[in-house]
Amino acid sequence: MSRCRRLFVLGSTGSIGENTLAVAAHLTKLGTHPFEVVGLAAGRNTNRLIEQARQCGARAVAVAVPASSGAVDLPASVGVYHGATAAETLIREHAQSGDLVVAAIVGFAGIAPVLAAIDAGCDIALANKEALVAAGSLVTARAKARGVSIIPVDSEHSAIAQCLRAGGSIVEVQRIVLTASGGPFRTATPEAIDRATLADALRHPTWSMGQKVTIDSATMMNKGLEIVEAHWLFGLEAERIDAIVHPQSIVHSFVEFRDGSVIAQLSPPDMRLPIQCALTWPARAEGCCARMGWSALSGLHFEPVDHARFPAVELALRVVREGGTSGAVFNGANEAAVGEFVQGRVRFGQIPRLVAEAIDAIPHSRVLSLADVAAADAHARRFVHEMASRARTQGTPAAS
Question: Per the domain annotation, does 246 fall within a domain?
Fold first, then answer.
């Protein structure tokens, strides 16, 4: 059996976290890449966190709710951390150089734990897009200085990394093309998109994901976030990043090289595969996913992104060009707008319009610290909430 590697899973009760623990158990059973699960962090699902900790023998857990919300029923030998900074504290107290941290906490809340893990000398299996979208310059610079790897977990970025490993270096790349399923509204009219309900937005045709990510997929804001993330992961400017709609979600990304050759990565739409790639990178092990059904390739379909109905891709490319705190504004405004939609305070179609207005209204500046990112994020959230509140008071749409 190979040497056991220490593992932390931040966001363990979400879809990525659950799949990560399943993959880690599979690899440990194989013996090729065994893992010791040291720490787990969750948001509010304390009961499931307790079950996971017992099943995998975690030494410490973190939960975002305060201690007053109830005791975490685990042995006294297990460290328990509570509150908004619990995941960051878990990492600072228990992580060691050479550990692997799966960063799957959704949203801005996942940035500080990622930076703490880098400071500790841990490699990062990154599923938190926001860490790079909002704080890409900080995260990548700190990872380079500390000599740690950022390994993508998103299926699209994992695909690009695999294509580069197989086909050539980043300096030989003409462009990368991320694929998008198109979500539940790929063929919907603008009017239907504008008036879509929460239930409509959560009816994704291909992937099973958490609420926020599923809504982002429906607006294609998820693809926008991934474009900004790709910029930081692979060091490519906006002119060398593109997206295309591929509803079957079998081709996960393309890499086009300078000589005109194009390499794609294909697999069934199962997040366990890119998770396993990240956990074993750069090696491979026997998989736990269904194999490709080659007959499915006869019906593959591709179409350009309709930027009029789905403006998120163009917004993301603008953010890449402008740089600085524009990424934090982009992400913070989107998180706030999604929250307003979930609460029934804005229409679905207003989400990207609110994000665009925030980018237009809030000047961007250089990012020198996490405080700069936090300030831009807070400004964007206030802007969106004020716009939505003003529109409700006036009885007019929150954005036009």
Answer: no
Question: How many structural domains compose the chain?
Answer: 1
pTM above the 0.70 mark? Answer: yes
CB contact at 8 A, 174 and 256:
yes
Handedness of CA 167, 169, 172, 174 (dihedral sign): positive
Flag whether 289 is in a domain: no
Is 362 a domain residue? no
Structural domain harbouring 80: 5-153
Preceding peptide of 282 cis, ω within 30°: yes
The answer as to whether 79 is a domain residue is yes
**CATH number of the domain residue 23 falls in:** 3.40.50.720
The answer, yes or no, to whether residue 400 has pLDDT greater than 50, is no
User: Model confidence over 167-184: pLDDT tens digits?
Assistant: 889 999 999 999 999 989
- What is the tens place of the pLDDT at every residue in 78-122? 999 999 999 999 999 999 999 999 999 988 899 999 999 999 999
